[in-house]
Task: inverse folding
C-alpha cells in the first residue's frame, strides 16, 4: 500500500500528541504542505488554500516541483492568486494519503498501518492541523483563507475555531454542512468500497485491492462533480467507435459518456487510498457548523446562520455555481449571508459555469477574475 | 429464480414468432396485462398505460385483484383515470419479470431460462408487444395512450410505429431519448449489478443472488428518482436513533436519509430480476426517437423534433417536474413542441412538485387534476 507524495513536498510535525475532535490522539503525525512566493516584511501577505477531498498540496508548480499542480491555471506569478504578491500555502488534508498522516500511514504506536484503527476524523481536525502549519511558518494572521469544496468546510471550521487567524475568506463551492442528497451520494460511494470483497474491512494491499469499489465510487463522484448541462453539450448521445468497444461484453461501454467515466475512474483508483477516502468522505457528512451556534441549537438553517455570524473576518466572498448538485448554490449564499450577519463585507457570487461542482478547477475564465478581484482589494 | 406475477394478471400470447428490433425472434412469448372498466359500444374509450422500468401491470385494484396497485390513487372509479368512463389497459413491459416474457422466463427452444440469451431488448419491442394486446382486446384506436417515465419512451415508440393507434397522448416525465447524465447513472447501476460476483454473468439463483449489486443499483435509482429539495425538507441532517444504529460498523447507517435508501433497496432486491433490470435499463439508453426522423438524421435536438412531428395525434399533454434530474423538464417541453409541430393540440405542463422524477407516483394532488382535465376534453 502506497502513499502518493509529490516530490518537493514539505512536512510539518504536529505536536507529539494531537487530540482529535471525536476522541483519540494522534502521535507523531505530520502535515504535508507546499508554498509559493515569500512572506513580506510586515508578515501580512499569507494566503492559505484548503483543498477538496482528493488533491495533494501541490496546487501549482514551484521551485521544489516544477510539474503543473491541480490549480496550475489559478496560482503562480501574475495569476489570479499571484505568488509575486502573496505568500501562498497549500496543505494536504489530515487523513489524506498524499503526505499528511492518515489511515494509510504507519501508526508509530504499533509499527503497522493505521487502517481502520485511525481515530475518527473530523473536518475540524484538518482545520486545526492547518493552523499548526501556519504557526510554524510564522504566519500569525492570514490575508485570506481560500477553501474549495470540502476545503470550504475546512475553512469555516478553521475560522470559527481560530478567531482572528484570517482577515478575509474566499469560500468556493463550499458548505456549512452537508445536505441529505450529498450525504446519500457519499454514503453510496462508501458502500461501493465497503462492498468490494477486496476491501476486506480495510485490510487490503496493492495485490488485493478494492479496485471495483473504488472505480464505482469515483464514477459516482464524477457524475456529481459535473453537470447534466455540460454533458449534453460535450457528449450528447455519441457512441464509441467500434474499435473502442468490447463486442464480447453485452453490457460493456457503448456511449462516450461511459468511456469518460471509465477513464476518470482508472486514473483515480490506484492513486488514492480507499480507507483514506472513507475517512475523508465521512468527515464531510459529519461536519456541521451549526454545532458552533449559541446553545440550544440543532442543525436548522437559522442555527447555521447564527454559527456563521460568530466568524469574524473583514471581507468574504462566497462563490458557487448554479449547476452544482453536490454543494448547491443556496449553500454559498447561506455562507455569505451568515458572514455578513457577523459583520463581514460579504459577497455572494453565483457563476453560470456549466461544469457543476468542479467548475473552479476548469472554468478559470470565470473563477480567475472573481478571485483576483477580491484579492486585489486586500492589504498585504 | 422467481417471476413476480400479481394474482389476477391476464396474459396474451404474442404471435408465435415475435421479431425483435435489434435482431432475434421470441417464440411463444406472452404479455401480462390487466384492465379496468369496460369497452363502450363505440369501442372508442380505450386508454393504455405504459409503465416505468419496475412496475407490474397491476396499476390499481380491480375485480381480479383487490389489492392496491402502484397507481391506486390515480386509477379507478371516479378517479383521474376514471374506470367508470374509460376502458383502461395496463401492460407489463416485454422483458420484465412481472408476467411478461423476459430474461427470467423459460426459453421454450431450450427449456432453460433465457438469462443473457434473451435477445437484445428495445423500447420498440415493448411498444409493438403492447399493440398486440390492444388488437387482441378489440381496441382499434385508443382514446389515449399514457406513458410514465420509461413508459413515456414506449408511448412515443408505440405512436410512431403504429400510426393512428391513439387519438391522444399523455406523456408523463418521459423523453424522446436519454441524455448523457441519465445514461451515466444507468450505466453505473448496471455496473453495480455486473460487478457483484454473485451476478455471475447472469447465472445466479435464489441462493446465489447478486443482492449487493441490486441494492446499490436501487439506491442510486432512488437518489435520482427523488430530489435534493424534497430531502432537505424531509430528512435534513436527522440522525437515526441509537437503537437503529450498528455501533460495530464504523461506516454503517447514521443519517435518516441513509436508512431511507436502505429500506427502499431491501424492499426491491428480491422483487425484481437482475437480468431483467439490465435489459430494461439498457433499452432506455438505446432508445432514440430521432432514428425515425427523415434521413439523414442523427440524434440532435432538431432530429428529435422532426421525428416527433411525424407522430399524428389530435391532442397531447406532456407533464414534467422541475426537480426531475433523470428526465429533465426540457425533455417534456421538447415532446410537446414536436407533437405540436406534427399538428397536435399539444400542451407542456411543468409542475412544481418537489418529489423529482417520482412525483407522478406521489404528488397526485397535482398530477390527478392535470390528467383528469385532459381526459375530460376527449370524446369516448
Result:
Amino acid at each position: 500500500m502506497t502513499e502518493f507524495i509529490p516530490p518537493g513536498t514539505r512536512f510539518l510535525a504536529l505536536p507529539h500528541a494531537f487530540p482529535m475532535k471525536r476522541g483519540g490522539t494522534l502521535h507523531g503525525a505530520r502535515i504535508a504542505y507546499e508554498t509559493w512566493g515569500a512572506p513580506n516584511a510586515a508578515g501580512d501577505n499569507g494566503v492559505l488554500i484548503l483543498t477538496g477531498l482528493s488533491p495533494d498540496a501541490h496546487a501549482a508548480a514551484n521551485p521544489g516541483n516544477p510539474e503543473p499542480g491541480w490549480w496550475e491555471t489559478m496560482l503562480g506569478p501574475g495569476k489570479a492568486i499571484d505568488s509575486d504578491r502573496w505568500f501562498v500555502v497549500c496543505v494536504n488534508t489530515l487523513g489524506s494519503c498524499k503526505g499528511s498522516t492518515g489511515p494509510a500511514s504507519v501508526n508509530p504506536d504499533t509499527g503497522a498501518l493505521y487502517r481502520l484503527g485511525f481515530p475518527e476524523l473530523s473536518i475540524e481536525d484538518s482545520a486545526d492541523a492547518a493552523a499548526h502549519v501556519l504557526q510554524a511558518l510564522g504566519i500569525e494572521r492570514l490575508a485570506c483563507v481560500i477553501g474549495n469544496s470540502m476545503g470550504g468546510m475546512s475553512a469555516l471550521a478553521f475560522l470559527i475555531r481560530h478567531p482572528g487567524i484570517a482577515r478575509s475568506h474566499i469560500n468556493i463551492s463550499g458548505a456549512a454542512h452537508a445536505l441529505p442528497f450529498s450525504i446519500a451520494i457519499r454514503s453510496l460511494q462508501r458502500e461501493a468500497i465497503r462492498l468490494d470483497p477486496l476491501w476486506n474491512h480495510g485490510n487490503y494491499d496493492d495485490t488485493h485491492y478494492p479496485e471495483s469499489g473504488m472505480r464505482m465510487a469515483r464514477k459516482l463522484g464524477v457524475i456529481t462533480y459535473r453537470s447534466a448541462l455540460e454533458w449534453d453539450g460535450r457528449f450528447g448521445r455519441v457512441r464509441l467507435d467500434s474499435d473502442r468497444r468490447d463486442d464480447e461484453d453485452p453490457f460493456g461501454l457503448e456511449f462516450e459518456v461511459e468511456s469518460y467515466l471509465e477513464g476518470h475512474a482508472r486514473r483515480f483508483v490506484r492513486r488514492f487510498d480507499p480507507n483514506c477516502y472513507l475517512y475523508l468522505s465521512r468527515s464531510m457528512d459529519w461536519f456541521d457548523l451549526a454545532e458552533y451556534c449559541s446553545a440550544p441549537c440543532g442543525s436548522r438553517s437559522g442555527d447555521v446562520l447564527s454559527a456563521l455570524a460568530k466568524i469574524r473576518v473583514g471581507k468574504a466572498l462566497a462563490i458557487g455555481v448554479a449547476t452544482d448538485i453536490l454543494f448547491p448554490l443556496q449553500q454559498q449564499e447561506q455562507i455569505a449571508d451568515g458572514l455578513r450577519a457577523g459583520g463581514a463585507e460579504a459577497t455572494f457570487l453565483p457563476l453560470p459555469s456549466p461544469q457543476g461542482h468542479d467548475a473552479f478547477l476548469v472554468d478559470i475564465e470565470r473563477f480567475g477574475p472573481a478571485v483576483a478581484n477580491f484579492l486585489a482589494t486586500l492589504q498585504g
Summary: Chain A touches chain B through 49 residues (CB under 8 Å). The domain at 183-281 of chain A is CATH 1.10.1740.110 (Rna Polymerase Sigma Factor; Chain: A). The longest helix of chain A spans residues 180-195.
